[in-house]
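Per your request, structure below.
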């Protein structure tokens, strides 16, 4: 099988690529990534020489390039992760989200349909999405697969729109598809604009820890390698046209998560317990900040047998260790040097 994974130089995509490369040596993995600010080939340098791996720098919005890629590599399946993914950036620059997440996804769908329409047997378009499409919960309740969409940020609206287009290509053109909507991920290689790596980095460097509002927003956290294993299960066993929620049954108020992060990181740094709490700085809340997300992932458990493998403290501990052991990765991301990796590694050999 020849699988196109989009966004494989990003946070979750790099874990998905590594998971598939190691677990399925019989598959050929083509990793397509535009290498935006969020794409970092250092995330996957350990597998770049694998015989079943090819990297292509490209843009999912470029229909001619996508057509050429599908033909050249005889793509059988797509696992689509490429996206603009940071809510704060979507508030300051919504159009790049609309272009990448909506037009980019529609472009890929159209090319997959064109290339596969004579024989859809054995083909699959897997769209990776977020629980944020469901909107915001109050103190109780969960998101189910049939919860009505109610996106409230430009990011979640663009992802919701892309989900609708995936279903439209399935119902209208018969494209075999599967979708998953996942809760917040954490783990190694996450760009330090997101809460957990940002705060670990700031605790290490004794910089302020900016907490939105009162810190009472609740998120359901999942270890990124568990997301990759769920994607594997859904890719192989998910039913055509179905959607699966993925979550960790692991809800945390931001402020409680931050205090746990401080406790664990201080301990690893040999600092007195809680000493970094003085770094907490409350800042004006994010516009339209969703109060609470919580996933019901029982369909995935009951139908496909997937459950998360890690408890939160264990996953968080592993994550902090990774950032402490990979200070060069962090420094390169913060300085922007990671963007030179492509040039150094590939020069202009791959377009
Ligand atoms: N991070 C989370 O907590 C989370 C949770 C649920 C779902 N998701 C979804 O999972 C996917 C991956 O999220 P992430 O956190 O790894 O994102 P990320 O921002 O770390 O990575 C996105 C990747 O997409 C690439 N990309 C962006 N525009 C592109 C384009 N036009 N063509 C090709 N590549 C392009 C970037 O270079 C980057 O490597 C996204 O679709 C996101 O919506 C993320």
């Amino acid at each position: 099988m020849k699988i196109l994974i989009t966004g494989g130089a990003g946070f979750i995509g790099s874990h998905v690529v590594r998971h598939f490369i190691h677990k399925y040596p019989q598959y050929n993995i083509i990793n397509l990534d535009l290498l935006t600010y969020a794409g970092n080939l250092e995330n996957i340098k350990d597998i770049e020489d694998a015989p079943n791996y090819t990297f292509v720098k490209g843009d999912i919005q470029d229909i001619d390039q996508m057509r050429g890629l599908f033909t050249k590599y005889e793509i059988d399946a797509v696992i689509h992760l490429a996206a603009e993914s940071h809510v704060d950036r979507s508030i300051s620059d919504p159009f790049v989200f609309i272009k990448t997440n909506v037009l980019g996804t529609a472009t890929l769908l159209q090319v997959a349909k064109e290339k596969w329409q004579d024989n859809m047997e054995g083909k699959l378009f897997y769209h990776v999405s977020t629980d944020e499409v469901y909107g915001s919960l109050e103190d109780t309740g969960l998101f189910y697969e049939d919860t009505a969409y109610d996106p409230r940020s430009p990011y979640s609206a663009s992802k919701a729109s892309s989900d609708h287009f995936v279903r439209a290509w399935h119902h209208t053109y018969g494209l075999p598809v599967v979708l998953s909507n996942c809760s917040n991920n954490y783990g190694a290689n996450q760009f330090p604009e997101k809460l957990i790596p940002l705060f670990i980095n700031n605790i290490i460097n004794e910089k302020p820890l900016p907490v939105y509002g009162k810190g009472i927003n609740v998120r359901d956290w999942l270890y990124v390698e568990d997301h990759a294993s769920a994607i594997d299960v859904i890719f192989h066993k998910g039913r055509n046209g179905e959607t699966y929620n993925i979550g960790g049954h692991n809800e945390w108020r931001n402020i409680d998560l931050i205090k746990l992060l401080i406790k664990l990181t201080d301990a690893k740094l040999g600092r007195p317990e809680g000493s970094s709490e003085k770094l907490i700085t409350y800042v004006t809340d994010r516009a339209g900040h969703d109060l609470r997300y919580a996933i019901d992932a029982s369909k995935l458990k009951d139908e496909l047998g997937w459950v998360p493998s890690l408890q939160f403290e264990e996953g968080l501990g592993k994550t902090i260790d990774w950032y402490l052991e990979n200070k060069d990765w962090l420094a390169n991301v913060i300085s922007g040097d990671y963007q030179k990796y492509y040039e150094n590694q590939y020069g202009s050999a791959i377009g």
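The radius of gyration is 20 Å.

Regards,
D.
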